[in-house]
C-alpha cells in the first residue's frame, strides 16, 4: 500500500509538472522570432522532432532570394543543398549554420532566385550572334539548304550567352546569411513545436503504463492465492501416491514460487518509467537515442511481467501496456 500511495503522489506531481512545461514552452514559441541564432542554440536543450520546415525570403538588388529548409528523421546528419550559382560561394557558411542547429536528420536546403527587377541574369553577345547568323546564312545559300531555323542554331553556338553574375559584396553576403538564419529560426521553432506535442504524448502514454502497473497489484494478490491453492491440492495428491524426500521437495516448491513472483519486475518497470519521464524533462540536449534505450528496458520488463503472470486479467493489462509502448517506440524514431 505504501508503494501505491507513493506512486499516486508521483503521478499527480508528474501531471502538474507536464502542464507547467507545456505553458512555458508555448511562451517560448511566441518569443522565438525575436531570438538570435546564438540564443536558439542556447535554448536547444529541449525535446525536438526531427521533422521541420522553415522558409524565408529577402530582396537583393532587384532579385528575391528564397530559402527553404525541410527535414525528416535520420540516424545521422544527411544534408543536401541546392543552391543557384549566385550563392555557391556561401555553401560552407550555410552548411555550418545548418549543422549547428540541425544536429541530426535528413536536411534539404533549397535556395531560389527570382528576378523582380530589370536586370537580366545573362546577356547575349550580339556581335558574335550576328556574325554566326550571317556565316550560317551564307553557307545555307551556297548549299541551297533551308534557312528557317538559323536563329535557334545561332543561340546554341558557343559564347553566345554569358552569365552576368557579379561578385557578392560583404554586405550582400551578410544579408543572404541573415535570410538563412531567418529560415533556420522558423525551422527550429517547427521542430520544437512538434517536440512539445510528442513530449506530451509520451508522458501520457508512460503514465498509462504506470497506471496499468497499479491495476496489476489487486489481481496479483488473488493470483498468488489461487496459485498456492492449486499447487497445494496437486502436491497433496502427489504426496499421497509417491515416496520422496519431503525437505528437498519443499525447497523445490519454494524456488518455483519465487520464480513466479513479479515484484522485482514491477519495481524495475516503475524505475524505468520514472527515468523515461525524467529524461523527457532533462535539459541536456538531444535525448532521442537515450529515450529509445530506456523504452527497450521498459519493454523487457513488460514482456517478463506478461510471461510470468499466468493470469488472464493481468495478461490483458500487459497487452494494453505493450500497445502504449509500441506507440511510443514508433514516435521515438522521429525524436532528435
Fold and architecture overview:
The protein has 336 residues and is an alpha+beta fold. Helices cover 66% and strands 12% of the residues. Among the domains are: 122-163, no CATH class; 196-332, no CATH class. The strands form two sheets. Strands 1-2-4-3 form a four-stranded mixed β-sheet.
In short:
The protein is an alpha+beta fold.
SSE order and pairing:
Blueprint: H1 2-31, H2 37-42, E1 52-60, E2 63-72, E3 77-82, H3 91-102, E4 105-115, E5 122-124, H4 126-143, H5 150-155, E6 161-163, H6 170-241, H7 246-260, H8 263-281, H9 288-309, H10 312-332
Parallel strand pairs: 3-4
Antiparallel strand pairs: 1-2, 2-4, 5-6
Helix pairs in contact: 1-6, 3-6, 6-8, 6-10, 8-9, 9-10
Q: How much helix, percentage-wise, in residues? A: 55-70%
Distance between the termini: 39 Å
The largest beta-sheet arranges its strands as: 1-2-4-3
* CA-based shape: elongated
Give me the number of helical elements. Answer: 10
What is the H/E order? HHEEEHEEHHEHHHHH
Please state roughly what percent of the residues sit in beta strands, choosing from under 5%, 5-15%, 15-25%, 25-35%, 35-45% or over 45%: 5-15%
**How large, in whole angstroms, is the Cα Rg?**
34 Å
What is the average of the pLDDT values? 79
Number of strands: 6
- Stretches where pLDDT falls below 50 for ≥5 residues? 1-35
Q: Which structural class is indicated by helix and strand composition?
A: alpha+beta
Largest sheet: 4 strands, mixed
